[in-house]
Amino acid sequence: MVNRPLSETRILIVGLGLIGGSLAAALRAVGFRGTILSCDPDATEITRGIEMGLIDGGDTQLAPLVEGASMIVLAVPVLAMQSVMTELAGVLDRAASNVVITDVGSTKAAIRDCAVAVFGGLPANLVLGHPIAGSEKSGVATANPRLYAHHKVILTPDADTDPAALARVRALWEACDAEVLEMDVARHDQVLARTSHLPHLLAFSLVDTLARQDQRLDIFRYAAGGFRDFTRIAGSDPVMWRDIFIANRDAVLASLDDFEAGVARLRRAIEAGDGDAMLATFDRASHARHYFDSLLNQTSYQAEYQMQQHGKLRYRVGPGGGVTGRIRVPGDKSISHRSIMLGALAEGVTEVKGFLEGEDSLATLQAFREMGVAIEGPHQGRVTVHGVGMHGLKAPSGPLYVGNAGTAMRLFSGLLAGQAFDTELTGDASLTKRPMGRVADPLRAMGAEIDTAEGGRPPLKIKGGRKLTGLDYDMPMASAQVKSCLLLAGLYAEGQTRVREPAPTRDHTERMLQGFGYEVHREGDTCWLKGGGTLTAGPIDVPSDISSATFFLVAAAITPGSDLLLEHVGINPTRIGVINILKLMGADLRLENAHEVGGEPVADLHIRYAPLHGIDIPLAQVPLAIDEFPALFIAAANAEGITRLRGAEELRIKESDRLQAMANGLATLGVEHVLLEDGIDIVGGGRLEGHNYSGGRIDSLGDHRIAMSFAIAGLRAAEEIVIDDCANVATSFPGFTELARQVGLNLEEEAGSGEDA
Ligand code: S3P
What we know:
Elements: E1 10-14, H1 18-29, E2 35-39, H2 43-51, E3 57-59, H3 63-66, E4 71-74, H4 81-91, E5 100-103, H5 109-119, E6 126-127, E7 129-131, E8 152-155, H6 163-175, E9 179-182, H7 185-213, H8 225-231, H9 238-247, H10 249-272, H11 275-296, H12 300-310, E10 313-321, E11 324-327, H13 333-345, E12 349-353, H14 359-370, E13 374-379, E14 382-386, E15 400-401, H15 406-417, E16 423-426, H16 429-432, H17 437-445, E17 450-453, E18 457-462, E19 472-474, H18 480-490, E20 496-500, H19 508-515, E21 521-523, E22 526-530, E23 540-541, H20 546-558, E24 563-570, H21 577-584, E25 588-597, E26 600-608, H22 629-637, E27 642-645, H23 658-669, E28 673-675, E29 680-683, E30 696-699, H24 704-713, E31 721-724, H25 729-732, H26 736-743, E32 745-751
Parallel strand pairs: 1-2, 1-4, 2-3, 4-5, 5-6, 8-9, 11-24, 12-23, 15-16, 19-20, 30-31
Antiparallel strand pairs: 7-8, 10-31, 10-32, 12-14, 13-14, 16-18, 17-18, 20-22, 21-22, 24-26, 25-26, 27-29, 28-29
Bound molecules: shikimate-3-phosphate.
Pfam family, one: EPSP_synthase
Binding site for phosphoenolpyruvate: 333, 406, 434, 481, 658, 705
Domain Prephenate/arogenate dehydrogenase: 9-300
């Protein structure tokens, strides 16, 4: 990290305890050359600070120290702020004219109110802040120069805060190697009440409760590691914590209410011997804790997470590279979603192998946990779902968040319309723009009560306890999600639910329902089922996702010298549009070792380079390759002649407007094309060797498939391609970068922020 230089000349730290002392120590350690002074009511702390070489001088009084200070850091307990600020207000005119004041208090609303009372308003040169670091130790003797390194510091400026003052406080903490964030005061207090204040309260309370029960403290002799880990923070400074709980009363009480409700739920489960409920809670918690661990350990998950938070993972793709080897891409996304959904509603235990551990399918898994389903894993693609039966789901405690996953939201809407309880479905910014009327309208025709936001967009509010009646529905668009949604609602409806599709779409729902012993009929373009049956659990083996395999199929198809084997790929006839289209374009693609697993056909796909030529893509192939077009456009850009696509208006309402996003990217690379409302004509470069277009900077619009498509485009580009906003690749294809590098692509990831590529 390149930190801004610290321009302060004289820093006055008021309160020389662990926090103030560590700040001085950190500044010294990075070679801060200005003066550091400190004020503390305890003269021995000042003397010790001088002896330790942390401060140049100090006093027990504030007045003599303020003169010439360029920055004053208030590091006193929260309830001491009032008197310190009052004293400061009286002598502030002696400080340098551009003095900046900041604090380190653990609660912010109370300190802001105190400043407003003392100064008659929040001074523009006062920047409230809070370093999220500390320990149960206190006093300057425990000062630690690395206390803030890689820790977060939250600053809570308001609209009137002087930006220059804010920048200087930021520079102070960045000099200590901290990561500086900004938040508003109220949010800060709520977040800290949950993540810090509540755990401290619990630790104090647990230790005190046990100690009271056993006055001689004998019981502690038998306490093992669990007790020690849980209660370390009960050794913290009592005065400081009293102040925090007084200052952050309301937010702490709210978090305590939530906690008490959680404990009460567990109490009931224990009382009733409800092992499933316990398992569901422990499992959720255990996963959340592992996730948190990976954040702390700065594993790749953290990098991913951080980038996701900022939406700023960037790919850099060097021109050229090869495509050879033997790889296995992750499990099928559509089947992974459905394995959890049907497993949860089944009687018995469903063992899933090959589950896609991508964010979309994990969102589905998490949603079922929130509805009381015990789910073990995922661990290396293995998941065990303890089915609760058709009517065993429980009301979740809040909205179900499904992230970027359109499939989850649309399938859930059907399934939840049949439940006894109300639910709300929400998603990320991209999902919130996608149309849900296509499922809400026919569900309403079945008797469901569903509210959407304007224009039929999420969130979806679904009323429980409605009686559903079977529907005979002519789908206006070829959509497997709509079909699946209605079939899932149909499980709960009286009578038959029939869905007619204008063109064949993926049939995983029908196949898997049959696999779970539910009768589903199909004749021509119509499928139907009768409500009121049950599902029986069984093992599921998820094949590799042909949609993920596509990026490597196209990579190999466009790169001279390539020879690649993709193992165990699902080749369900409703999904193989990409194979048909690539073959029509001249690709040397063979299916080997074809066999069936759990009702789904699979094969190894063997592809070697052969020159491609442009084609008119047959209309019938469009729904069978609907997710594969971004990658196929890259194939077209490398083919000889023109490739024409029509009848693909659905591409405009995927995770992005994929026709527009691809056209923009192709334009950047200099690939000639004509964009239409429902398709595109692409004029291929057609060279057999060398490059077919330039490089450039591409915006993936946060769409995983756009990002991966331009990553493989690099194989035939003249210069580097830089792709912004790629973190969502983790929704469908965790490990994409590693596999791409393994086969020979020149792909690097970096954290990106805005315009600085
Ligand atoms: C899916 C259906 C398709 C596809 C999506 C997954 C499914 O969507 O694009 O990635 O699992 O049912 P539509 O039904 O909107 O075509």
